[in-house]
Design brief:
alpha/beta, 5-stranded parallel sheet, 3-stranded antiparallel sheet, binds adenosine monophosphate
Length: 230
């Protein structure tokens, strides 16, 4: 099954995607990570998008749709993707739909992690990411220590777009461009709203329950189809 995780910056999309991949046979695809990698290895694309990202604006639909197209077309990813930070505009929604259809797939479930502006600011301002194990921490709310993080401290980095001004821009962009597309998934009946202000474990507990339910139904469905044939 493929799923999408929505939420403003700092809502916990990356953290929860990590929790999910540790327990389900799924892979996370974060357009933010893919784009940051382009900047890190200084590709032409990276140079083009750096200032856009540092201003909290959205990179063009064509760029992200192309990146995502390469991932969906890889047979190893068939029905295994968690889309984190994509789609972010209605045009990306349609492009994703078209791409998945082309490869005989669909989105089965959408999670929206709902948090208010104050939480966004606190979470994103305190975020540090390990560049080695990719775990996400928060210096105020979930600080890295010897128990929860085994890599050396030098690998911990703050994202350049996690500063007060850019966070506010990213939040505004989320509200104006991304939030409206939740309606689309709500009408399809696959949207699950989650209170993202809860503790990490509480949020994951809710997500896990929903995913297990859907997985069980998928098994029952396939078993039924199988039995029908014999
Ligand atoms: P994220 O890591 O998801 O917070 O994304 C960081 C930044 O990458 C965003 O503020 C945008 O500038 C850019 N970005 C990530 N995903 C997308 C997307 N689907 N469409 C456009 N821009 C994106």
């Amino acid at each position: 099954m493929n799923l999408v995780i929505f939420g403003p910056p700092g809502a916990g999309k990356g953290t929860q995607s990590n929790n999910i991949i540790n327990n389900f046979d799924l892979k996370q695809v974060s357009t933010g990570d893919l784009l940051r990698n382009e900047i890190k290895i200084q590709t032409d694309l990276g140079k083009k998008i750096e200032s856009i990202m540092n201003n909290g604006k959205l990179v063009s639909d064509d760029i992200v749709n192309t990146l995502i197209g390469k991932i969906i077309s890889n047979p190893k990813n068939l029905n295994k993707l968690i889309f984190d930070g994509y789609p972010r505009t209605i045009s990306q929604v349609y492009s994703l739909e078209k791409l998945l259809k082309e490869f005989n797939q669909k989105i089965s479930i959408v999670f929206s992690l709902n948090v208010d502006k104050d939480i966004v600011s606190k979470r994103a301002n305190g975020r540090v990411v390990c560049t080695r194990c990719f775990r996400i921490f928060n210096v105020y709310l979930n600080p890295p220590n010897s128990k929860n993080h085994k890599c050396e401290k030098k690998y911990l980095e703050k994202r350049t777009d996690d500063n007060s001004k850019t966070i506010l821009n990213r939040y505004k962009t989320y509200v104006s461009k991304t939030k409206p597309i939740l309606d689309y998934y709500s009408k399809k009946g696959i949207l699950h709203n989650i209170d993202g202000s809860q503790k990490i474990d509480e949020i994951y507990h809710e997500i896990k329950g929903i995913l297990k339910n859907i997985r069980d139904w998928h098994y029952v469905y396939f078993l039924y189809k199988f039995l029908e044939k014999i």
